[in-house]
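Extended Data, panel c. Modelled sequence:
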Amino acid sequence: MAEIDELRSVLKIAHLYFKESLKQQEIAKQLRVSQPYVSRAIARAQKEGLVKISIHQPPGMHLDLEYSLQNKYRLKQVIVVDTAPDIPIDYVKSHVGSAAAHYLETVLRKNDILGISSWSSTISAMVDNMHFARSKAKEVVQLLGGVGNNGAFQATFLTQRLANLLGARAHMLPAQSIERSAEAKKRILTDPEVKDVFDTFAKIDIAIVGIGQIEPSEYLRNSGNYFQHQMLQELIDLGAVGDICLHYIDKHGNPVLTKEDDPVIAIDLEQLKEVPQVIGLACGLEKVQAIHGAMMGGYCDVLITDFQTASALVKA
């Protein structure tokens, strides 16, 4: 009979906890038992199937798909935005940007230093969807150079807008994205203002990056910050499938250029891995290979994408 009596006690505690929504401490006080006893009873009720918990997913939620990608790529979190097929990509980016804005506003802590990649229309959509945050960041740091045809305006404007929304100081990177050669890059890195921004990279708490395909987007092409056709072909020949902060990677996530040969003025990929929380934003079936490579390389902790792209990534 002792087992039946014990089971009765377990059921009573499970009922109070799951049905009456009492806290463990409240149950312990009501039944005059210890809190560890209550905790063990709740665990037993779940283990032995006395309590079954089900989660109802409303339309537009894709929890199973999110967890599939989290497990596949060993990510901390994946957010999949519900989108129908054959809708304009700008519409998709707006929805992904909205989800990213909400996520950032949720995880941002007071005095965080935030890094932002300059050339991503999805990141721009995120900023468009942001409100004045309750949590104030300390700094917003530009991760990728932005001087170019329209670059000086667009990149600094995006960084400054986000800084204003977060009540933070904007830390601009006063250089173009791509230097003429690796030697020219070495020279520009000795500039005190550029060096100051690069020194800040090690202090970043959260980085937000876009993931680009081989062919530059219209947004990037209009800026003038992209490799010309001949160089892009050379990168393809080396196995490139896409880029993060204009550092091109292969399908395994390995950089196709050595650090010494890469002329891009931006946080380098190994340093990006050291950032505690890296949020990758990307959408569109044309980016599946690039996103897969970025995830395989371990450059992101969080991925925010759309349903069509996420479904293709599961099969990649």
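The CA atoms of residues 116 and 142 lie 5 Å apart. This feature is highlighted in the accompanying rendering.
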